[in-house]
């Protein structure tokens, strides 16, 4: 009985996976199952480079949600965002053999592909429209105070939507995803100082939208 | 010590949440907040902005994704990516490297050595041809040395 057959049978018995889902260890005669959910991104990318589609599906499951949110914030609309993330993932699959974990974290590499595709798409489709229901009034909000707050919120959300793509990307990466300025800089292909300036310009634009002496500055 | 100007610049970029600030600035920022009423005022204004920006971003997020839509989008993404990679050839490690990857893994050096090798082998072939030619041809008569450089057709025409 060959070593490979033994390893495959063992894997099928204990993990419910096929022989194709086991990986060679240092000793070729010793094989272990691939625990996709527990594997580090770098291992999943390495397995993907060997053609392991299940490893890449784990990458999509793990990073897809944020990639979709990031793209939806920057792309012209949500459908475009879904197209972009799918394209980014397929590119990541094709280039997985070229990924060097010593040079970058996988998520930085993936987010960079997503952001670049989003910025390219937005350059072709400007300006983007707000969703139809964006300024729909809340029928339950009758008091002037609530309406005023609602209007402020709508105005700010609209101002967010028309910020330049790189400013939106910087805000999403740092404020939502919690990336450091340095890591956001690597995603955007900029210096950390440039990311600081993008964030400052975005906040200044929003501040201007709300008015210099607005009561929300009172804290 | 962090200057008030730099502190304000950082607050205007990262807001009031210290977790967002560059790690190397946090201790100095805390010291400045403790020492300076102006720094505390800057931080208070940044905190108020954070509240409004956070609310606006949540509103925008809610407009982009209604409940359950993100899960559906992720399912579509997984399915679409699986279909496309199943239809494409498997990626191979080290395929088509360019730029820094070639420098870092030595393939650029190997490629340059390859070019050098090509040039060296061409030069060797020319040298070998000259050597063989000199070995198998008669030595020129010193009195007729100019004939060596005279092209044959010209010689025929003269005759």
* Helix residue percentage of chain A: 55-70%
Q: How would you classify the quaternary structure?
A: heterodimer
Counted beta strands of chain B: 0
Helix content of chain B: over 70%
Global morphology of chain B: flat
Shape of chain A: elongated
Determine the structural class of chain A based on helices, strands and strand pairing. Answer: mainly alpha
Strand line-up across the major sheet of chain A:
1-2
Largest interface: A-B, 64 and 53 residues
Describe the main β-sheet of chain A briefly. Answer: 2 strands, antiparallel
Number of strands of chain A: 2
Order of helical and strand elements of chain B: HHHHHHHH
In short:
Chain A has 219 residues and is mainly α.
Question: What report would you give on this structure?
Answer:
- The complex is a heterodimer of chains A (219) and B (159).
- By secondary structure, chain A is mostly helical.
- Helices cover 62% and strands 3% of the residues of chain A.
- In chain A, strands 1-2 form a two-stranded antiparallel sheet.
- By secondary structure, chain B is an all-alpha fold.
- Chain B contains eight helices and no strands.
- In chain B, α1 runs parallel beside α3 and α2 packs across α3 (37-64).
- The radius of gyration of chain B is 38 Å and the shape is flat.
- Chains A and B meet through α2, α3, α4, α6 and α7 of A and α1, α3, α4 and α5 of B.
Give the tags.
heterodimer, A: 219 residues, mainly alpha, two-stranded antiparallel sheet, 3% strand, disordered N terminus, B: 159 residues, flat
Task: Outline the secondary-structure elements.
The complex is a heterodimer of chains A (219) and B (159).
Chain A: H1 3-14, E1 22-24, E2 31-33, H2 41-49, H3 53-74, H4 78-94, H5 106-124, H6 144-161, H7 165-176, H8 181-188, H9 192-210
Antiparallel strand pairs in A: 1-2
Helix pairs in contact in A: 2-3, 3-4, 3-5, 4-5, 5-8, 6-9, 7-8, 7-9, 8-9
Chain B: H1 4-14, H2 23-35, H3 37-64, H4 69-86, H5 100-104, H6 107-136, H7 145-149, H8 152-158
């Amino acid at each position: 009985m060959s070593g490979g057959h033994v390893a495959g049978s063992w894997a099928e018995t204990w993990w419910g996976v096929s022989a194709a889902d086991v990986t060679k260890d240092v000793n070729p005669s010793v094989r272990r199952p691939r625990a996709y959910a527990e594997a580090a991104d770098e291992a999943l990318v390495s397995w993907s480079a060997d053609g392991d589609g299940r490893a890449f599906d784990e990458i999509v499951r793990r990073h897809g949600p944020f990639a979709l949110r990031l793209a939806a914030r920057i792309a012209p609309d949500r459908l475009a965002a879904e197209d972009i993330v799918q394209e980014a993932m397929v590119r990541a699959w094709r280039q997985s053999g070229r990924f060097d974990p010593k040079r970058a974290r996988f998520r930085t590499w993936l987010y960079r592909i997503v952001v670049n595709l989003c910025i390219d798409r937005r350059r072709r489709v400007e300006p983007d429209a707000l969703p139809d229901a964006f300024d729909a009034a809340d029928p339950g909000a009758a008091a002037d105070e609530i309406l005023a707050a609602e209007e402020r919120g709508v105005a700010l959300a609209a101002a967010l939507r028309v910020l330049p793509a790189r400013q939106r990307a910087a805000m999403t990466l740092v404020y939502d995803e919690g990336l450091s300025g340095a890591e956001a800089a690597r995603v955007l292909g900029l210096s950390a100082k440039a990311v600081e300036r993008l964030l400052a310009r975005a906040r200044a634009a929003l501040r201007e939208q709300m008015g210099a002496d607005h009561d929300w500055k009172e804290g | 010590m962090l200057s008030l100007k730099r502190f304000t610049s950082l607050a205007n970029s990262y807001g009031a949440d210290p977790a967002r600030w560059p790690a190397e600035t946090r201790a100095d920022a805390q010291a400045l907040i403790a020492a300076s009423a102006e720094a505390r005022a800057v931080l208070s204004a940044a905190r108020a902005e954070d509240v409004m920006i956070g609310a606006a971003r949540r509103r925008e997020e809610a407009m982009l994704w209604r409940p359950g839509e993100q899960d559906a989008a992720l399912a579509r993404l997984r399915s679409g990516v699986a279909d496309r990679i199943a239809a494409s050839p498997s990626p191979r490690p080290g395929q088509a490297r360019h730029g820094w990857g070639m420098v870092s893994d030595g393939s650029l050096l190997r490629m340059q050595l390859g070019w050098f090798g090509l040039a060296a082998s061409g030069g060797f072939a020319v040298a070998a041809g000259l050597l063989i030619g000199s070995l198998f041809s008669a030595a020129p008569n010193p009195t007729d040395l100019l004939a060596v450089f005279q092209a044959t057709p010209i010689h025929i025409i003269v005759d």
